[in-house]
Structure formats: structure tokens, C-alpha cells
Design brief:
The structure holds two protein chains of two kinds.
Chain A: E1 3-7, H1 18-30, E2 33-37, H2 46-50, H3 54-69, E3 76-78, H4 81-93, H5 97-107, E4 117-119, H6 120-127, H7 130-136, E5 145-149, H8 158-161, H9 171-178, E6 182-183, H10 202-218, E7 223-226, H11 229-237, H12 239-246, E8 254-256, H13 257-264, H14 282-287, H15 294-297
Parallel strand pairs in A: 1-2, 1-3, 3-4, 5-6, 5-7, 7-8
Helix pairs in contact in A: 1-13, 3-4, 3-5, 7-9, 10-12, 11-12
Chain B: H1 12-22, H2 34-38, H3 49-57, H4 61-65, H5 69-72, H6 78-82, H7 89-102, H8 109-125, H9 130-141, H10 151-156, H11 170-183
Helix pairs in contact in B: 1-7, 8-9, 8-11
Classes of the chains: A alpha/beta, B mainly alpha.
The structure holds iron/sulfur cluster (2 copies).
Amino acid sequence: MSKQYAYYPGCSAMGSSIEYDISTRALCKSLGVELVDIPDWNCCGSTPAHASDHLLSASLVARNLAIAESMDVEGIITPCPSCLKNLKTTSLRMQRKDFHEKVESIVERPVRADLPIRSVLQTVVEHCSPQSIAEHVSKPLKSLKVVPYYGCIMNRPPDVMTFDDPENPTSLDRLMGALGAEVLPFPHKVDCCGASLGLVRRELVTRLSGRILDAAASLGADAIVTACPMCQLNLDLRQNQINRANGTQHSMPIFYYTQLAGLALGQSESCLRMDKLCVSPAKALQQVGAPAQEERAR
Amino acid sequence: MPTSSTTDRFDSNFLKEVQEGSEQNLTRCYQCGNCTAGCPLSFAYDIPVNRIMRMLQAGEKHAVLSSKAIWLCASCETCTTRCPNEIDVARIMDVLRHMARREGLVAEPPVRHMWDAFLNSVEKYGRVFEAGMMANFVRRTGRFWTDADLAPVALGKGKLGLRPHGIKHPDEVQRIFARFREQL
Ligand code: SF4
Ligand code: SF4
């Protein structure tokens, strides 16, 4: 049974996390989760907006809510935890009448703010049980040791995100397990990587992200699997910077969970845009028994 | 003549303003220190987050609003998640940044410039245009992009959008910004 959702890709999907967007669409398609893009969606303002003004942040989000409300959908879903937090926070705050009126007067259109909003991760694990996903697996990720990294805000604050456990979430663990991967218990799964300070205070970021890479490596992980575009970019694109700052030599691939899921469900590496990853995933992919054409493509 | 010791005297309005802006009851903080213990940026803060909570109760407006900590906060929500008194501490940090801006007390200008460059891009195109935002940031801070070493990799992987991804009705987003400013 197929359900339609209003899909909010978020700005990173247009550039720095294009492989997340592509593999998200592919995964949803194969699992019967139907995505309809919110037409002409705008940026939710991310941290810069809510850190500057809550009314501005809510108004940027509300335009998207209003458009989604004119679609015939079950709810709104987004792959990005930062967008998710903004969408959900706004929808909650708009339950207050005075705030609701202020936002509507700025957006200049009626907004109900009553559609359910979820992450793609939540939708996938709730729409399909890990067992039923396991039945779809044609190429199990066996022999691949992964640590699941949720990032700080996929599940927090719990009153807003209302999904999984805020200190020890397990949805990604269960999903990766169902795909055949060996999932290592990762004590840093909700630790902050510092991504939002990347541009201005590099030394803070290399320290926080370095800790995550160090921990994953010392557990013997072959890869980190993440659901957050900011975390992915930070750990992947900055990995050399982090290595230089900390005197380490990590070469740890940072996959989106949607890429690994796609692989297990039989999608090709090129369709999953593995070539977009900065740290080469070739070794990890070989372990899963993927064709070695990857090197050539890079 | 105010002396350094009087700049931070109790300002009862300040506490009220923060409580109203954040919809949080700050008097419930009993200084357990959970927020600070979990804060990933504590090591870089000039004032640890539980101490900020205490200073709010004490109405120390100037010291709180001119702290670096409120700009280094990564909005990671650990403090909010772990506060035993259900205080949304991260939301308070947001509100303090809003107030510091209004009062002209921003202690970490580059963070503010980065956010403004981001919002500028949103206002102009409806979505963030990464390369344009960087250029804007460099212009505002007068310092060369500190991540210049990443540019070749990011460009090679197509991860630094060189062209804006505009929306069909950027005017609607521009109106949101304009109406918001009228409100101030
Ligand atoms: S965790 Fe809550 S009660 Fe404890 S010090 Fe922090 S704000 Fe106060
Ligand atoms: S939200 Fe800010 S203050 Fe709270 S724990 Fe995270 S970085 Fe620290």
C-alpha cells in the first residue's frame, strides 16, 4: 500500500549532499514510500534563522507548510535533521494562537501547521519493519562493520522530535542489522560533531569530529553510517583537515544510510552516487563484494 | 558614573524578558550542572552554560549578553534533553543571541557574519547558494575563507554549488524578510 508524502529535500540536497537526496529517493521508491516534492519550497533558514529570530525562522518554515497543506498528502518528510527540527518546532509553536497569527501575517497566507512531520528515517522504519526490509535484501552487507551515527538532533529534543530514544537511539542500528551489516555499539552516536561552527572555528570542529572518528576507528569499524548531511560533510570532506589537526591518519568512509540500504537492496554504486564521497569507500565496498569498477569511476 | 562592578547589577527586566522570549521558567534551575556536563562546547566557553543560567537568575544582563559562549553554542540540544527540570536551555541560548544582537553586544562577530551571509543568500534566492554565501562571508569578515583548502575537493565532488538554486517565487521569500523587518 503506497502512501504519498510531501518531500522537503532541504538546501544541502541541491549541492553538498546530493547523493543523500538521490539515494533517499531511490530507497523510498523501492519501499513503496511515495515522495512528492513540495513545489517551489524555500530554505527553512536552518540554524542561522532560529539563532537570529524565532519569528523569522517560523515564517520561513511556514511558507513550506502552507504549500504542503495544499497537497493531498499523509504528511511532510525530510531527510535532513536540521530541517526536521525547524519544521517540527515551528509546527508546535504555531499551536499558540498569538504566535500563529504573527506568522500568518508575515507569510501572508493561511497556515494550518497540522500535518504530521517526520524524518525519512522514521518513515522508513515505521512504514517497513526491519524484517520486511530484510526480505527485500538481495546483497546483504555481511562482513561490513559499521557504527551508526545519528548526530545530535535527529532525536533531540525528545518532546519535539518524538522519535526513538534521545540518548541511545536504535532505529539506524536495527535497520543496518536487517541489511546484514555487523553493527557495533557506538557510544558517540548522538554526540555533536560541531558542524555548524565549521566555517568560523575550525579548531573546535576538528576536536569534536576527531573524537568521533577516533572512537569509530578504535572499535574497528569499516565505516560510519549517518543520517545527517551536516555530519556527513563534516566527517567526510573535512577528514584530512581533522587528521592534520589531530595527527591522525583516518581513512574512514562516511556513508549515508540510504546508500548502504540501496546497495543491500541491489541498487548500483553509480546510481547511489558513491563517487560523491570524499574518503574513498572502495575498500568497504569491496568487502561487501561490490564490483571493483569503483576505482575507475573515481 | 558606572564602574565595572555596577555594569552587572541586578536587572529584573532582563530575567523577565528572557523568560517571556523563551517561554521558560528560569527560576526552576537549581544548578545541578547537567547541562554543562553534557555540553560538547564547554571546553571553549568563557562561561559554562549552567553558570549562564545562574547569572540570568541574578539579572547579570551585560555579562551574559556579551559572552562568547552564546555564539559558540552549537544548538545540539544536549542541555535541553538532560535538564531534570525540563528547561529548554538551548532555546534560552537562542533568545540570548537574539538579545545580544539587538543590544549590539556580539562577542563572536564571525559567527554572526556567517549566519547573516547565510540568511542573505536565502533572502536573495529563496535557498542557500553555497559559493555565494562563502564570498559574502569573506567580504563581511575581511578574512580569507578559512576552509580554502577544502575548495578543490568540494568543487571536484560538485559539493560547492557555483550557481544559485533559485526558486520560482523568490519575491515571496523577500516579502517574508521585509514584513519581518517592518515588525521589529
Ligand atoms: S541542567 Fe537544568 S537545572 Fe541543571 S543546571 Fe542546567 S539548567 Fe539548571
Ligand atoms: S545546545 Fe548549546 S549550550 Fe546546550 S549543550 Fe549544546 S552546545 Fe551546549
